Amino acid sequence: MGMLSFLNALNFYTFANLEVGEHFYWQLGNLKIHGQVFLTSWFVIAILVVASLVATRNIQRVPSGIQNLMEYALEFIRDLTKNQIGEKEYRPWVPFIGTLFLFIFVSNWSGALVPWRLIKLPAGELAAPTNDINTTVALAMLTSLAYFYAGFSKRGWGYFKKYIEPTPILLPIAILEDFTKPLSLSFRLFGNILADELVVAVLVLLVPLFVPLPVMALGLFTSAIQALVFATLAAAYIHEAMEGHGEEEHGEH
Fold it and tell me: Which residues form a coiled coil (predicted)?
């Protein structure tokens, strides 16, 4: 009876009104898009744009405040990109890797720090952009396009030799690998962010006072790690697409 009473009590509370498949749609002609993802993504983009403008509005020789924070973030992203891609070739890729890292980082933290669920929508509910599989798959597709471009621009048509070496029989596997690597990143990011938000929501429901706080702190840490993992592996894939060019040039000379 005690367990039954507990379960009945839970019926009066919901930690999320979102049902599977329920979204806040925008209809643009014949196109139906997930409005809640755009709203939260624009919020994240606005934070990054405002922070960049404030940090560069009055640049000081000795940085402080938000300028110091943004310069630290830039230095961190530059070092990350350099370590993965290499000293000679990393500079053009700093903006792309930096955008990936900062967007994912702020998106993840917004899910933990912004009370999205207090904002009511006609359908669905707001959550971190990376809490939606469409966002993470889009980031994975951008990563795929980036390393295809990196490989082709660096090695020319010779880039496609890798698909038939050492034997053309491996062509389907090589093509599949190019798409599964970034997609695995997207599913890992989506799964971790969704699981973290669900765990915090359940704990807030069951033990609403002190217990959720350490879990929320751990969620902030793992959210930052997920952004770092995605950006690091994206840079590693770009380096992998470009590698071998120097050896080919050396052989030609």
Answer: none
3-class secondary structure, 91: helix
| Amino acid in the structure at residue 92 | P
For residue 164, report the phi and psi dihedrals to the nearest 5 degrees: -120, 10
Secondary structure of residue 79 in the 3-state scheme:
helix
- What are the pLDDT digits (tens) for 206-237? 666 665 667 677 778 888 888 898 999 899 98
What are the angstrom distances between the C-alpha of 99 and each of 83, 167, 227, 240?
17, 37, 11, 20
Which pair of tokens denotes residue 221? 């840490």
Residue pair 204/212 in contact by the 8 Å Cβ criterion? yes
Find the DSSP H helices in the chain.
Answer: 2-10, 35-57, 65-85, 94-113, 133-155, 171-206, 212-242, 245-252
* DSSP per-residue letters across 101-165: HHHHHHHHHHHHHS-GGGS--SSS----GGGSHHHHHHHHHHHHHHHHHHHHHHHGGGGGGGGTS
How much is the pTM? Answer: 0.78
Phi, psi of 213 (to 5 degrees): -60, -50
Encode burial over 49-76: b for 16+ CB neighbours within 10 A, e otherwise: eebeeebeeeeeeeeeebbeebeebeee
Tell me the residue type at 236: A
Q: If phi over 0 gives left and psi between -120 and 50 gives alpha, with beta otherwise, what is residue 198?
A: alpha
